[in-house]
Every structure is written in C-alpha cells, then in structure tokens.
Specification:
Blueprint: H1 4-27, H2 33-68, E1 73-79, H3 81-96, E2 116-121, E3 124-127, E4 130-133, E5 141-148, E6 154-161, E7 164-166, E8 169-171, E9 174-181, H4 187-198, E10 221-222, E11 229-230, H5 247-280, H6 293-323, H7 328-347
Antiparallel strand pairs: 1-2, 2-3, 3-4, 5-6, 6-9, 7-8, 10-11
Helix pairs in contact: 1-2, 5-6, 6-7
Length: about 350
C-alpha cells in the first residue's frame, strides 16, 4: 500500500461521517422515508468501509514506522535507476506467463536519480514508499519464496489469500505474488531474505506455534489426501490444495470437540431422560405427549441422531487430543450424520 497514512486518514473520516449520519438519524428529528434510508445507507457504508480502511491503514503505518526505526530488518539495498527501469519493463512479462501471478506491488515508471530503496523486514517489505505486510503466521500466507537470476535479480514471493465469507457469499481464495528487484552487490542479503520467507530459518515459538524447524514433532503437518508432510507453517497442501493441520493444532481442535461433544451429549441425555418415557408411550394419559406414535418415533430418531453426533464428536475429540492426527473416516461419518439431521429437519 502506498501512503498508508493517507488511507488511514480517509478511513477515519469515513468512520466518523458514517457515525455522524447514524447519530443524526436519531437526534435530528422526524425525517422522510427517503432521508432515513439515505442516512442509514451512507452511515452503515461509511462505518463499515471506514473501519476496515482505517484498520488496515493503521497496520501498514505501524509496519512502516517499525522499519523506519530499524526493527527486525533482514536486509536493505538500493536499486540503481537503470536496473529499476529494466525491472519495470520486465515485470508485466511475469504476470502474462502461463503460471504467472499478478504482482501486488505496482512499480512506478521512473526512479529517482538516487535509485529506489528496498527494506526487507521479518514481517514487512518496503519498496520505495510502498509497504507490504507479510506476517509469517497470518494473511497473506507465503507459500513459496524464489530468487530469480537476471539483471537485476528479482525476489518473488508467492502469496495465498484464503477464502472468506461475505454477505454476498464465499469469496474464493486468491493467489498473487510480490516481486521486487535486488540491488547490485546485495545477492547475499537477498538469499538471506528468501531463506527467511521460505521458512528455512526457525521461527519464534509461542503457545499456538512452534519453531517450525523440525525439532518439535508437534509441528508436523500431514495432508490426509496425498500424504504430504512438512514441519513448516502451512495452511494448505502445496501439492493438492487440501488443508493442513499440525499435530499441535489437532490436539487443540480435539479439545474443542471434547467440550462441544460433552455439551451436546449432556443436553440430549437430559432431553431423552425427561421426554423418553412420554415418547415411548405416546397417547398415554400418564404422559404429556399427545402426538401420534409416528411423530414420537421421529422425535426419538432425531434426539438419538443428535446424541450420536455428540458422542462421535466427543470420541473423535479424545482421539485427536491423544494422537494429534485426523481421521477421514470419522470426518465423513460426522458429515453424513449432520446431513442426515438437516434432511430430517427439512422433511419435518
């Protein structure tokens, strides 16, 4: 993003004007239907887009300020004007290639007489005045880092933006790239930067992630579709695109399944304990269920299926907690059981 401070300011203005529009709706007295609709529309639009624009702009501003203070810098070099012109002329060819990806960096046509400065940090890259945040454990995910020979050499980072849901549906995943030139005499620094973004260097461990260098078996992620294995932090398999999950995350998801399964089992157990006698003897004067025997059997089937769903989640959660692995058979069974419950609810 170029000039993130300006975009943050625009976002704050949009957020403020949106809030002002909604506030005027309540304190401005009676309004016509058209005015109310306009205030609600522009207020919601301004607050939504203003919030996200201000948030992302502020993150870019902080990343740029951190690089300016010299924090977590891997390398720094300057690209001469003639090398910059060669890079600008050759960059469209990368995008038009059969397997090429759109460059998230939009290089300017001309460089200053002193050249263009490139600052490579551990979590961001600044090219001239354009800042690009590259968190090693966030979005976008760096799936591959390459150093291409040439005049000048070019670093290419392949980026993966995961799909996300919106009010209009699911936005598909995006695959882009970040390409920028390497200055003269900076090949050693460029190789160090590529090794960092490729995950060849151990990361900083925390509660949710390990070092990713193979020293901890909990970092191992295995694709249950093609068998691909890696200790590096990856969200999906580079061979087949299936989601990856490390043993550490499998145990944590297993703990969540145990809690969810226990809640479902407890609720369904209580429901069956209270309503079971009435459903087993429908129409009896001693019961409070006045439906037909067919409806009673249907309700028992639904409650039993939900109890089976909870027991499966509970058992599968314990399996993941103790083994750190996923099972395709259990996943398919849970999905089929959930589909069965949805079908029953639809038919009723």
């Amino acid at each position: 993003m170029r000039d993130p401070l300006r975009w943050r300011t625009i976002g704050l203005w949009g957020l403020g004007l949106g809030a002002l529009s909604l506030a005027w709706l309540w304190v401005g007295g009676d309004h016509s239907v058209g005015v109310r609709f306009a205030l609600i529309f522009f207020g919601a639009l301004g607050m939504t887009f203003g919030f996200w624009l201000a948030l992302f702009g502020n993150q870019d501003v902080r990343a740029k300020q951190a690089l300016a203070r010299g924090e977590d810098i891997i390398a720094r070099w300057r690209v001469e004007p003639q090398d910059w012109q060669r890079f600008v002329a050759s960059d469209p060819q990368w995008t038009s290639h059969a397997n090429g990806r759109l460059n998230e960096f939009r290089p300017s046509e001309a460089a200053t007489p002193n050249g263009v400065e490139v600052i490579v940090g551990k979590a961001a890259v600044q090219i001239d005045e354009s800042i690009h945040r590259l968190p090693l454990r966030g979005t976008p995910e760096i799936t591959e880092a390459r150093l291409h020979d040439g005049t000048p050499p070019v670093i290419e980072l392949l980026l993966y933006h995961p799909p996300y849901g919106t009010r209009f549906g699911l936005r598909p995943a995006r695959y882009t790239a970040l390409r920028f030139p390497v200055g003269q005499g900076a090949l050693a620094d460029a190789r160090e930067a590529v090794a960092h973004f490729r995950g060849d260097r151990p990361g900083e461990p925390d509660f949710l992630h390990g070092r990713g260098d193979g020293t901890n078996p909990e970092d191992l992620s295995k694709c249950y579709n093609c068998g691909y294995e890696t200790h590096k932090l990856r969200s999906h398999c580079p061979k087949c695109g299936t989601s990856l999950q490390s043993r550490r995350w499998s145990r944590r998801f297993g703990f969540g399944l145990v809690i969810g399964g226990a809640i479902v089992c407890g609720l369904m157990g209580y429901v069956l304990f209270e309503l079971g006698p009435a459903l087993l003897n429908p129409g009896s004067r001693r019961t409070q269920f006045s439906g037909t025997p067919g409806k009673a059997r249907t309700l028992l089937t639904i409650f039993g299926a939900m109890l089976a769903f909870g027991l499966t989640a509970l058992g599968y959660g314990f399996y993941q907690m103790f083994t750190g692995r996923r099972s395709k058979r259990v996943i398919y069974f849970v999905v089929a059981l959930a589909a069965f419950l949805v079908l029953l609810a639809y038919l009723l």
